Amino acid sequence: MPAAALKPKPSPTQSTAQHPVLFDSPYEPTTKRSLPAGRPREWYVSHNRRLKAMRLAIALLDSGVYLPDQARDDTIRGTAETIGMRPPSDTTCRMVRAFMRYNR
């Protein structure tokens, strides 16, 4: 029997990495441009929330979390702490999972 047949297959939610993926530290954001003036405050809040959720989703994907079910609030907040970001709100955590779900 071949040796490959003896190894158990990992479950779909189990990472196949032999060691954790390291983040590019320290995190350096790209150069910021000013946002367009004259929009309602809610637009700026939602825009910044989307940007934060995208950064967190990318960091989770880089660390081996590929499914939204794996990205619990504590996992997302731990990733935010790892990359030097303030802990996200519950709304932002839901948005991170939505990005992971719909951008597959």
Describe this structure in words.
- This protein is mainly α.
- 48% of the residues lie in helices and 0% in strands.
- It contains 4 helices and no strands.
- It has helices at 3-6, 41-63, 73-82, 90-102.
- The relative contact order is 0.15.
Task: Set out the fold topology.
Blueprint: H1 3-6, H2 41-63, H3 73-82, H4 90-102
Helix pairs in contact: 2-4
Compact overview of the structure:
This protein has 104 residues and is an all-alpha fold. The chain has helices spanning 3-6, 41-63, 73-82, 90-102.
Task: Quickly list its features.
mainly alpha, 4 helices, 0% strand, elongated
Determine the structural class based on helices, strands and strand pairing. Answer: mainly alpha
Query: What value does the average pLDDT take?
Result: 82
Indicate the proportion of strand residues.
under 5%
- Outline the low-pLDDT stretches: none
Radius of gyration: 17 Å
* SSE series: HHHH
- Tell how many strands the DSSP assignment holds: 0
How would you classify the quaternary structure? single chain
Distance between the termini: 36 Å
| Number of helical elements | 4
Shape from CA axes? elongated
Helix share of residues?
A: 40-55%
Specify the biggest β-sheet: none
